[in-house]
Design a protein that fits this description.
alpha/beta; D-Maltodextrin-Binding Protein, domain 2; three-stranded parallel beta sheet; 14% strand
Amino acid sequence: KAAGLLRVAAPVDFGAARLIEPVTAFRAKCPEVEIRLELADRMVDLVDEGYDLGVRIGHLTDSSLIAKRLAGACMTTLASPDYLGEHGATVHPDDLSRHLCIIDRNKPAPNQWRY
């Protein structure tokens, strides 16, 4: 019978969108397991910080960790119709250099946009 503390780390957006329901279902099946879910947009050190499970988005660097792919993910570039009306649409990724872009500096490579 499973019991004890399970510490899980995941990115905020992924955790909020994808983990709440499965964690709730797991808790219903295994009420003796306490789940401590930390949602943070930083690269936690799973071993040094004592986590049992971590969710990563992107490529896993060389590691002694055991990894399993959960799902695919893709990045999308978006703009409001008002913004595009004022600044013009993009045709090619190179066009982004003339736009006011919001980037997430918490990501491992915020200035690298891959298409």
